[in-house]
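Morning, I've got a small favour to ask if you have a moment. You're getting the sequence in one-letter code plus the fold written as tokens. Thanks so much in advance, here it is:

===
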Amino acid sequence: MKNLFSPLKLRELELKNRIALSPMQQYSAMKGIPNNWHLVHLGSRAVGGAGLIITECTAVSEEGLNTLYDTGLWNNVQMEAWKPIVRFVKEQGSKIGVQLWHSGGKGSNTHPNEGMKPLPLEKGGWITKSASSTVINGITAHELTIEEIQKLKMDFVSAAKRALLAGFDTIELHAGHGYLFHQFYSSVVNKRSDQYGGTFENRIRFLIETVQEIRKVIPDTMPLLVRVSAVDYLESADAWNLKDSLALSLILKNNGVDLITASGGGFAHVDKSMVFPNYQLPYAMEIKEKIGIPVGAVGLITTSVQANDIIVQDRADLVVIAREHLRNPYFSINAALELNIPPEIPWQYHRAYSSIKPYS
């Protein structure tokens, strides 16, 4: 019977366990260049035993940033800076993926320590771009032209090519949380009347075409992942819902996507009463059951027993852990100990676990 520490194979990529570090923005880069903070942040979770390390959302163009402090992969300087991070993570026996993304109309913000407010143009801000000329976070976004959409697809392709050169094992597209892809597929934001707006098929077109273009340039052996917002958390009749996500997931699967992580929201405040352990797990379960594609589970997953139950009960294929990894970089080692499974401990740390045998 499979458990949290059973291997997971996606195409030819095999993860040593079912634990992933969730992408979390660190707001610690300059000019999109990752640095020692990112090496330690990602590397320590690899030392801690996570099977898959996923970078924070990494912009495919400068205007795709959320803040001036996000990482990027739109030039070779950034690519070279990712290489030692990728190499270190892989040396620990983990696999590493880059999450590619464009913030769209949610971009051009101050640092979180400065309130995450709209960044004025005179202080380095920029004109944001979205599916429609919509007010998002107090900023009116510029509606992307057809030509700009085509260029954006190529920005994603170029970033994917750089990801290969940097040594990443997999790529995830961030298509949720109110960012650019989500701004296209949600009719709450997308008010276009051309081939990228209106019908469901048109609204998902930008994402699907980007998936198709990336699939052309990455090896058949490399898995392609996508994170979606399964629901908008809006009461509007035209809000994106789980039925929409099921239809999208089938199309993603048929176009070469290998795993979908389903979370939610992006345009609305989530009331604290809605947040409880596994609160977003049902979305992943529904996609897994109805579409037959591997899924990643998120949503206040904080304990080893909770994470293990998700895998043992076949609710999801991968447990994608965010904030608990911030509190506990060695979550995977500790989870193995708590579940009475021999942990994989770096030899440098064996003396701290002298009663645990066999070592690996």
Observations:
- The chain has one domain: 8-353.
- The longest helix spans residues 146-166.
- The CA atoms of residues 246 and 286 lie 8 Å apart.
- The mean pLDDT is 96.
